[in-house]
Design goal:
heterodimer, A: 367 residues, mainly beta, six-stranded mixed beta sheet, B: mainly alpha, Growth Hormone, Chain: A, 2 domains, MFS_trans_sf (chain B)
């Protein structure tokens, strides 16, 4: 009986709201509403169309060479050691070779680039092996894959990725390869991102799809959490590595062992570690208390023997996994006008940052 | 009883959509279709943004979004609070439409803001405001759906609305990626188009949804609620809280809370699918589409079925589908078909519970307090699910995924048994219930 009253109310009130039966204005009222709708659709469609057109125009502009940008010419790029030291990186300079792996002499980083034709979002190389995390253009959206390259940049292995590429590393010998992707952040998982780090043995072909099953101990007790996140592997040798693990809002440097699938925490507040060629120090980004939430990191160096850490002379926010160009110098990317720019700074905290080259990301030094 | 059904054939309702998707059968009211259209359009808009957000943060802005989700709980809490506020405001003076416009408008205005902010905290803040808008509009919208549909077809009305809503959610990512195809890294274009689409949703709401809810004027003249001795309801905070004094609504809310406490969140379901059934990485992002597709296909049939056999029965039955999904995830079966079956069951769960609960609850709340009442049930359910996801995460940490899921299955079984015993919505079972 409750509903009876409701339905009556509905019917009674339907008149004025749904177009007043029996009144001549009803049809013209509907017509007017349709006209207003049509006008709004037109205006909004124009705005939307203009936005897409402008963005499309801008995207195409990146296919033309940017004024004052570096010269890039296609040529052969090899990951073999020998000859004068070289840098291989993702060249972000506008033009036909944008996002291709390119090489420059280490002594002339801002000089003319030789582009390989291989496109990567993230890249690293060592010991004649390259790891390239690239986008695969699907019919609707892009997906991502990891591609292992030999010294001639030929693909030797492809692995589909579950998320957006962020970090990549190769062990000094070239045998072990690791990468990290961001997963989630879609509507269904909410804004909750997680990372997934994989390690591939290129000799046996064995792939560890995620480090989540590793036994991680901290101060003797095992860390168990659904929110355990790993990222930023840096290899010591073909068995041992360092990486970041995060849980409960804290990050730790871990030393891991691929044979026993175990890791122990070494130090706190360490992200994206990078081991020095002599294996004695870790360069990393540290979340420094008191910094603004949108620029929380500074580039630090940790001495593994003493556990002492110190800041580098770079005072800007560094969100990158740095590389060592030698035992005394760090190289890292900062956001720039055309993609990102590469800088270097002494590892011992002295000196000042120096711009190496613009429009470049993910460098690897080849001896 | 069928007075308002006949509205569909009144020449006054000339909107062609009124004859809509069920030719030859009684149509769903024009208001419901208009609200469905608003939700469809708005979902296209919001899913456009969420689909490209990870890409935008990581590759567009070069940010590390890890830990971005830490504030999620806080935002969800806000959203739930604003749902209650929205429900209450909407009931005062029967202002369902203005409050809904405010909610939809607020979310629309957030889209151009995304063009202006480039840091994680500010982007998080904009998304929080966006969700506040969603919180504000949900209860008044569902109240309008329930008030615009005759009680005996409410299940179907909510089914049609949810199906349209889900259609929008499926189209949004498609639209966004087509724009990115046209304009590489054109995130600003995606946000601008998303704003235009959201604005269109508000326009449709303003133009095609009746501005006055029928009931408040009549609340005093007709017994709007199951014949309690209570005086006519005046929408006040006290009256809204007093709703919990009604045995039927209290029972319903308790059951929704009990079942919500055993409802594992979507992201955990997909993680479990991947870990326990070995769904390959590259399919991971597509898993939600499976749920949405089943939801879309079944929302209307299950809504109609709920009208016939009883909403409460279908609501509780939907949880049995979820329980079956848990069972398959726990089992040692390993068939290639299994992930599809789990996703179909997951979608069935949503189709049988999401709109159906609102249809059931509407029958237990007087029209004058409809928004507040629906908000109460929704908030109770959302809070329970939030608690469940925290507890489930902790159980996963302590005992592993299988034990955690086993615990959830036991809890769900108990909740279903308790709900069957309480049977709170006996009177609101079906439209016919009022006659008998």
């Amino acid at each position: 009986m409750a509903e009876v009253g409701e339905v009556r109310g509905e019917a009674a009130a339907a008149g004025p709201d749904t177009g007043a039966p029996g009144r001549g204005g009803a049809v013209s009222g509907n017509g007017r509403r349709l006209l207003v709708l049509l006008a709004c659709v037109l205006v909004l469609a124009c705005v939307a169309g203009a936005a897409v057109w402008r963005a499309s125009d801008r995207a195409h502009a990146k296919d033309r060479v940017q004024p004052g940008g570096p010269t890039v010419a296609s040529g052969a790029v090899s990951l073999t050691a020998g000859g004068p030291q070289r840098i291989v990186f993702r060249s972000m300079a506008w033009g036909p070779h944008r996002d291709e792996l390119a090489t420059v002499p280490a002594g002339d980083p801002d000089g003319p680039r030789t582009a390989s034709g291989v496109k990567c979002l993230r890249f690293y190389a060592a010991g004649g092996t390259g790891i390239c995390l690239q986008a695969v253009h699907g019919p609707v959206s892009d997906s991502y894959r990891a591609v292992v390259l030999d010294a001639g940049l030929h693909v030797t292995r492809k692995v589909d990725l579950a998320g957006i590429p962020t970090r990549a590393r190769v062990s000094p010998s070239g045998r072990m390869v690791a990468w990290t992707v961001f997963v989630g952040g879609d509507s269904y998982a909410g804004t909750d991102f997680s990372t997934r780090t994989s390690i591939l043995d290129t000799r046996t072909g064995a792939l560890e799809p995620t480090l989540e099953d590793y036994t991680v101990t901290r101060d003797g007790s095992r860390l168990r959490a659904a929110d355990l996140n790993f990222w930023g592997v840096t290899f010591a040798d073909d068995r041992h590595f360092y990486a970041t693990v995060a849980t409960g809002g804290h990050t730790y440097l871990i030393r891991g062992d691929t044979a026993t699938k175990a890791a122990v925490t070494v130090h706190g507040n360490v992200e994206c570690p990078s081991l020095s060629p002599d294996g004695t120090r870790i360069a990393y980004k540290k979340r420094v208390p008191g910094l603004p939430a949108d620029a929380p990191w500074r580039l630090y160096v940790l001495d593994l023997a003493t556990g002492r850490e110190h800041a580098t002379a770079e005072t800007r926010d560094v969100d990158d996994q740095a590389v060592w160009s030698d035992d005394h110098t760090l190289v890292y990317a900062l956001p720039g006008d055309y993609g990102s720019d590469l800088y270097s700074v002494p590892a011992d905290g002295t000196g000042a940052p120096r711009l190496l080259t613009r429009s470049a990301l993910a460098p690897a030094y080849l001896p | 009883m069928y007075v308002s059904e006949s509205r569909g054939s009144t020449p006054a309702v000339t909107a062609p959509s009124a004859r809509g998707p069920f030719p030859g059968r009684t149509a769903v009211g024009a208001t419901v279709l208009a609200l469905g259209a608003v939700s469809l359009i708005t979902d296209i808009s919001s899913e456009m943004v969420t689909a490209v957000l990870p890409l935008y943060l990581v590759t567009g802005l070069g940010l590390s979004p890890l830990g971005f989700g830490l504030l999620d709980g806080v935002y969800n809490g806000f959203s739930a609070l604003f749902r209650l506020v929205g429900g209450h405001l909407a009931d005062r003076g029967g202002r369902h439409k203005p409050v809904a416009v405010l909610g939809y408008g607020l979310s629309a205005l957030c889209k151009p803001l995304l063009l202006a902010v480039h840091t994680l905290p500010l982007i998080g803040a904009v998304l929080a405001v966006d969700r506040t808008g969603k919180g504000l509009r949900t209860a008044p919208r569902d109240a309008m759906i329930s008030l615009a549909s005759p009680p005996e077809t409410r299940g179907r009305a909510f089914g049609v609305h949810r199906a349209m809503d889900t259609t929008g959610a499926l189209l949004g990512p498609l639209a966004a990626f087509l724009i990115l195809r046209q304009a590489a890294e054109g995130y600003d274009a995606v946000f601008t188009v998303s704003f235009c689409v959201a604005a269109l949703g508000v326009v449709v709401l303003l133009l095609f949804v009746p501005s006055r809810s029928p009931e408040p004027g009549l609340a005093g003249t007709a017994p709007a609620a199951p014949a309690d001795a209570a005086p006519p309801e005046r929408p006040s905070l006290r009256a809204a809280l007093g709703l919990l004094g009604r045995r039927e609504l209290r029972g319903l809310t308790l059951c929704a809370v009990a079942l919500g406490l055993a409802t594992v969140s979507d992201s955990f379901v997909y993680l479990l699918l991947q870990r326990r059934l070995g769904v390959p990485d590259r399919w991971f992002a597509l898993l939600p589409l499976g749920t949405a597709a089943a939801f879309l296909l079944l929302a209307v049939p299950l809504g109609r079925w709920a009208d016939r056999v009883g909403r409460w029965r279908v609501f509780v039955g939907g949880h049995l589908a979820l329980l079956a999904a848990y069972g398959l995830l726990l089992s040692h079966l390993r068939a290639g078909l299994l992930p599809y079956v789990v996703l179909a069951l997951h979608g069935t769960f949503y189709a049988a519970t999401d709109g159906v609960l609102m249809a059931a609850a509407a029958g237990s709340v007087p029209a004058a307090l409809r928004s507040s009442g629906l908000a109460l049930v929704q908030t109770g359910q959302a809070a329970a699910r939030f608690v469940c996801s925290i507890a489930f995460g902790a159980a996963w940490t302590a005992f592993g995924d299988r034990s955690a899921l086993g615990g959830a299955a036991v809890a769900l079984t108990l909740s279903v048994l308790v709900s069957l015993r309480l049977r709170p919505a006996a009177a609101a079972e079906t439209g016919r219930g009022a006659d008998g």
